Amino acid sequence: MNWIGNNLPLIGERTLDHIAITAPVILLSFLISVPIGWVANRFTASRGIVLSASGVFYAIPSLPLFVALPVILGTGLRSPVNVTIGLTLYGIALMVRSTADGLASVDPDVTQSATAMGFSDSSRFWRVELPLAGPVLLAGLRVVSVSTVSLATVVAVLGVPTLGLFFTDGVERNILGEIWAGIVMTIVIALVFDVIIVQLGRLLMPWTRSSSAAVSRPGRRTRVVAPV
Amino acid sequence: MIEFRAVNKTFPDGTRAVENFSAVIPSRTTTVLVGSSGCGKTTLLRMINRMVDPTDGAIEIDGENIADVAAVKLRRSIGYVMQNSGLLPHRKVIDNIATVPLLKGVPKADAHRHALELMETVGLDLSLAQRYPAQLSGGQQQRVGVARGLAVNPNILLMDEPFGAVDPIVRADLQKETLRLQRELDKTVVFVTHDIDEAFLLGDQVIILEKGARIAQQGTPEEILANPASEFVADFIGADRGKRRLTVSSTAQPQGDDVVLIDAGGYAAGVISAPDGKLATGHSSPKSRSISNKTDQAGDA
């Protein structure tokens, strides 16, 4: 365990590297999945195809993918672009299904009433369907976040600096403390990301916690109404 | 005035929902489309705001063919209230009511002020303004739905079985409110229901529909009750079930100035005023039809 005490700055540096790689991947996975998930949900014919394709994609072993991608993209093996695209593809594979499921979970009564009110197709999507798909999107994003943080350790094998380097290096040099540092910091990042995502969700979707919270909010006229 | 001219609707799956429907819905009155499930009444209603476009035929509002009006613009000018309220669950009550004004670009402060006025109009406690729909009872949600339908002060209000999902007592309350609102606001209301009692209670004009939205009978509740046009209508309004035809009970003793009425099944169905043992005549207001409604709700509850 001496190793940890002597290498705190290095642990900090690798942790930041790890965050720098994973945070954009999680964001990109989300942004790219929204239109794909929309297509999957919008047209019955595309739903099966898109969802099975994304499912199959997730089954591709990660190492060969990271080796093959530079050949296809023309980037270097250790280029951050290669790593970002590879990880994002896995993120999308997970997130597309959540997006499609989330959009499908929106009550058709609500979308119909929104249409009847005079929402145009695009405003209905952005202002009604996407927000209401939020809870399912959030659940999906939490999985993507954890999966990305853990998967990003693999790219250390390519020599890209992440917490995964502590695994390869620790195994090679037989330093148990180094391996432990990598494991613990990976879990810490995953937990912190999860907390951030959940808090963002609470902030952006106040209605999801309203049913219990606001009724008993103190200082207001509390006329408790039984939900029908 | 809304006019349907030889309107047909065949859905892509081949269902003929509407067959050659023609009717005039006069302004500032309530017209009720009533029929069993699948008779095409909701399809007719949704044609008025272009949620459904007819396969052929035309629908005109004040002489203008609505096919020539952009659907989104048309919908923003017509109030729509639906079953289960269809409120946006992620928006507070006040924002739900202000939905269409906000879509049309009315400043938020103005839209909210107007929304609060509408809450009073429909009899909602203003303390509910900051709640989310899920925190309201079914009856309150329906009132919010009505307030939202009125938010742009539309000439036309479409109501699609708005009280179908609330319990009978709340429904009676909402029906009363609807009558009051109609007296106060003077809108052209097109109301869809499968409940003939609701139709007779609310409708100035009632259109009874058979499958394919074929008109079985069209007229005032009084006309239809007095002269059912067909076996189907008679059956539908319950005439032959004896629910409508009430007779003075020969066995029950008059209670004070009231005489007990029984239906064909022999069940007590209501009372009629009979001061000094004589039936009151000549003073029956048109709203006396609500007597039959009362009996039905007693049966429901």
Automatic annotation (TrEMBL), chain A:
GO terms for biological process: glycine betaine transport; transmembrane transport. One of its GO terms (cellular component) is plasma membrane. It holds the Pfam family BPD_transp_1. Keywords: Membrane, Transmembrane, Transmembrane helix, Transport. It is a multi-pass membrane protein. Residues 15-197 form the ABC transmembrane type-1 domain. It is found in: Cell membrane; Membrane. PROSITE patterns: ABC_TM1. CDD domains: TM_PBP2. The keyword Cell cycle does not apply. The chain crosses the membrane at residues 20-40, 49-73, 132-159, 179-200. The keyword Transport applies. InterPro entries: ABC_transp_perm/SBD (IPR051204), MetI-like (IPR000515), MetI-like_sf (IPR035906). Belongs to the binding-protein-dependent transport system permease family. This is Osmoprotectant transport system permease protein.
TrEMBL record, chain B:
Residues 2-237 form the ABC transporter domain. Pfam families: ABC_tran. The keyword Transmembrane helix does not apply. Its EC number is 7.6.2.9. Residues 273-301 are annotated as: Disordered. It comes from the Bacteria. Keywords: ATP-binding, Nucleotide-binding, Transport. SMART domains: AAA. GO terms for molecular function: ABC-type quaternary ammonium compound transporting activity; ATP binding; ATP hydrolysis activity. Residues 282-301 have a biased composition (Polar residues). PROSITE patterns: ABC_TRANSPORTER_1, ABC_TRANSPORTER_2. Belongs to the ABC transporter superfamily. This is ABC-type quaternary amine transporter. The lineage of its organism: Bacteria, Bacillati, Actinomycetota, Actinomycetes, Micrococcales.
